[in-house]
């Protein structure tokens, strides 16, 4: 049992990161903290996909004459390419969110969710 846990410690770390990100998004009232929680959650998802695509004893997907053309001996590059695209999209979303937060801060003089909602209801 303990050996299985040691073999999957990365998934435990991913679950902890996912929990921290969800906590930041759902519980915190400051919009910057919510954005940081979203980024932590995104990072945990990236790590989950990359860790799930790894194979024990596999190598980069460049055909080697010594290994032959057996696909089981090579790592699938598709999840890594998808996560690279997701990282770029995540950075763009973070930039747009920071621009929105800057505008919200200038308009309402606060980044607290409750005070912004209170100000909007007036």
Overall description:
This protein has 122 residues and is mainly alpha-helical. It has helices at residues 2-7, 9-26, 31-52, 78-108, 113-120. It is built from five helices and no strands.
Proportion in helices: 55-70%
Number of strands: 0
Largest sheet: none
Average pLDDT level: 91
Tell me the series of helices and strands, N- to C-terminal.
HHHHH
Give the uncertain stretches in residue-range form: none
Count of DSSP helices? 5
- Distance from N terminus to C terminus (CA atoms, Å) equals 58 Å
What is the element layout, followed by pairings?
Layout: H1 2-7, H2 9-26, H3 31-52, H4 78-108, H5 113-120
Helix pairs in contact: 2-3, 3-4
Q: What brief labels describe this structure?
A:
122 residues, mainly alpha, 5 helices, 70% helix, 0% strand
Can I get a quick summary?
The chain has 122 residues and is mostly helical.
């Amino acid at each position: 049992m303990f050996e299985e846990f040691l073999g999957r410690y990365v998934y435990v770390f991913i679950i902890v990161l996912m929990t921290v990100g969800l906590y930041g998004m759902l519980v915190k009232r400051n919009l910057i903290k919510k954005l940081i929680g979203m980024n932590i959650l995104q990072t945990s998802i990236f790590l989950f996909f990359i860790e799930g695509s790894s194979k024990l004893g596999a190598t980069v997907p460049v055909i080697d004459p010594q290994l032959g053309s057996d696909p089981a001996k090579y790592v699938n590059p598709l999840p890594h390419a998808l996560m690279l695209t997701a990282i770029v999209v995540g950075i763009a979303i973070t930039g747009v969110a920071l621009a929105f937060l800057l505008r919200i801060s200038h308009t309402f003089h606060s980044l607290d969710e409750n005070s912004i909602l209170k100000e909007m209801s007036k």
